[in-house]
Amino acid sequence: MDKSFQLHRSPAVANLERRLFLRRGLSLGALAMLAGCDITDQEGVQRVLMAMSRWNDEAQQWLFNPNRLAPEFPESRITKPFPFNAFYTEDEVVEVDGDSYKLELAGMIREKKPWTLTDLNALPQVAQVTRHICVEGWSAIGKWSGVRFSDFLARIGADTSAKYVGFQCADDYYGSIDMATALHPQTLIALNYADQTLPPKYGYPLKIRIPTKLGFKNPKHVAAIFVTNEYPGGYWEDKGYNWFSGS
Amino acid sequence: MSSTLIHPLVVRIAHWINVLAVLIMITSGWAIYNASPLFKFDFPYAVTLGGWLAGALQWHFAGMWLFAINGLVYVAYGIASGHFRRKLLPISPRAVLHDVGEALRGKLAHADLSVYNAAQRGAYLALILLLILMIATGLVIWKPVQFYWLGQFIGDYEGARLLHFFTMAAIAFIVFVHVLMVVLVPRTFPTMFTGRIKHG
Predict the structure, then answer these.
(1) Which of A4, A39, A51, B20 sits in a 20 to 30 Å window from B56, CA-based?
(2) CA nearest to A220, candidates A171, A187, A177, A180
């Protein structure tokens, strides 16, 4: 771990460091257990299914065409109201203070200076009307605008040869994506929904909008972004959802 | 006592792997359906596979490889060996309707197990085409961006979801009738293991 990472340690970054450490511990512990114990059929089936899920990550990375764009729609097709969805109910949505908010950066990034909302809004903005597809099966069309994520990664000097980009959120959600998807031209730091400042229920102050991935891979209330070669997992992925989950 | 081979080994192996694969795909598919039902009903938990959505998706996306690879081997064999041509052709809509009518009146001829009547030819051919449609609609649901071109033939993502469901229903119906016929003509059952019918 380089020195600047230590210097820029924020609560959000400390949180994700702790989780990466725990994950290493858990996997070592799990290996020790496997060596010493009989594996029940149930565990055997689970291991095969998890191995297939990792294989499906590989297959999807192979299928992913970095130049193929997700379909865009006319504004008349936007779903109204756009559904709220999270691992909690709408009255539990986290309220982030935009004036004191700073987007923290960590890991394999050259310029780790935190970003205020004013800084982010001053960058060139793009808009998209795309379809959000939930892992549950339903879909809805919405309009997001903000900073193209690949532009942002270039500006902060992210090492784009790294494997993963991870996110830590103000609502204790966390997630990660592959670098190829992070660099896709439609992957955005969304600051607005339907031309208005992103409302709390859609992820104020910022959401990572990725129309080439399922909805749960689009984190809201993002507080820290980190670039790493170490698999960071995610809130739902650690419970069993497929990690790549690309469209 | 002599015997005749009516089901080649490749067909028998592919049949039983397909039984397992389709069972996995349909029961895990029902659990996935339940997460966001298309219609005003859901499937009883007891007949679903996977426990919850993540488990069901893991089964579905593991089972799809078994289903697709097995299906590919079967179809390649069926075409290359002439098995399809010998067993499923010729076929005409008139003959299929006639034999389905006979079957409904309980007068279906299946005395020679080595030859399929038109109702069987129609059902097996329809099943093969429906299973291929299942893969096509499944690909569009799984990868609506990467397989966008394919989605344009079947109503994009939401159209593919509906078609995936109705194709499942048609497959489930044919499987139900198929099993019913085996119960009614039980001497067909062992041939799917031995591949042979005995004479004399």
Answers:
(1) A39
(2) A171
